[in-house]
Amino acid sequence: SFVLTQPPSVSLAPGETATISCGGNDLKNMFVHWYQQRPGQAPVLLISSDIDRPSGIPERFSGSKSDDAATLTISRVEAGDEADYYCQVWATTSGHGVFGGGTKLTVL
Amino acid sequence: VQLMESGGGVVQPGRFMRLSCAASGFSFSGSAMHWVRQVPGKGLEWMAFILHDGETRYYAESVKGRFAISRDNSRNTLYLQMSSLRTEDTALYYCAKDRGGGSLDFWGQGTLVTVSS
């Protein structure tokens, strides 16, 4: 089965730039989406189709992809960015959604 | 946009349960929909997908043959029929709207299903 690999945790100080990676076989041929989930809340779509930021999402959040690795970048990290972040793809050939294991972002 | 799940609760192993998701604020009949679950303290797990007209449905391997996704576009409601429930099906179940390209742009707050004897 298809697997998306994320680092379990990332820690950094306010104002720094966070990068969260997401790797998977043949990711270059799929759209990668990113979600933020704050404690006790439902997930929120941050980035769609590798780089597209939905309306209302701050410009500090950006997505990129190179070959089979996607990256979520959060510039000027704030305390309010503490959350779990998930990457996700839709595997068209099998008709399955797949989430990465999630990355817990801690702002020191 | 609002999505509101209901129908969760405590159920014994082997029994069935039906979850509902009431949608409003967007063209439900024109939108594909998903169910996603999350064991408390764990990650997100995609469960099922249904196309806007109900003609195409996909399931995660872990629930294929036990769970059934359906929709009633006249009632703006999405369903998840769960049968032969197992303790490992205990989770918070979310319904979510498909934005296109397989991304989920709006989510409900979830309904908790606890499978326990």
Describe the overall structure.
The complex is a heterodimer of chains A (108) and B (117). Chain A is mostly beta strands. Chain A is built from no helices and nine strands. Chain A starts with 8 loop residues before the first strand and ends with a strand. In chain A, 35% of the residues are buried. The model of chain A has no long low-confidence stretch (mean pLDDT 96). Chain B contains no helices and eleven strands. Chain B has strands at residues 2-6, 9-11, 17-24, 33-38, 44-50, 57-59, 67-72, 77-82, 91-100, 103-107, 111-115. In chain B, a hairpin with a 4-residue loop joins strand 7 and strand 8 (77-82). The radius of gyration of chain B is 13 Å and the shape is globular. The relative contact order of chain B is 0.31. The chains are: A mainly beta (108), B mainly beta (117). Chain A binds chain B through residues 1, 31, 33, 35, 37, 42-45, 48-49, 54, 84, 86, 88-90, 92, 95-102, and chain B through 34, 36, 43-46, 49, 56, 58, 60-61, 94, 99, 101-110.
Write the layout of secondary structure elements.
The complex is a heterodimer of chains A (108) and B (117).
Chain A: E1 9-12, E2 18-23, E3 32-37, E4 44-47, E5 61-66, E6 69-74, E7 83-91, E8 96-99, E9 103-107
Parallel strand pairs in A: 1-9
Antiparallel strand pairs in A: 2-6, 3-4, 3-7, 5-6, 7-8, 7-9
Chain B: E1 2-6, E2 9-11, E3 17-24, E4 33-38, E5 44-50, E6 57-59, E7 67-72, E8 77-82, E9 91-100, E10 103-107, E11 111-115
Parallel strand pairs in B: 2-11
Antiparallel strand pairs in B: 1-3, 3-8, 4-5, 4-9, 5-6, 7-8, 9-10, 9-11
| Subunit organisation of the chains | heterodimer
Which spans of chain B have pLDDT < 50 for at least 5 consecutive residues? none
- In DSSP terms (H or I, runs of 4 or more residues), the helix count of chain B works out at 0
Computed Rg of chain B: 13 Å
Biggest sheet overview of chain A: 6 strands, mixed
Structural class assignment of chain A? mainly beta
- From N to C, what is the helix and strand string of chain A? EEEEEEEEE
The separation of the N and C termini of chain A measures 36 Å
* Structure summary, number of beta strands of chain A: 9
* Count of helical stretches of chain A: 0
Q: What is the percent of helical residues of chain A?
A: under 10%
**What best-fitting shape of chain B do the alpha-carbon axes yield?**
globular
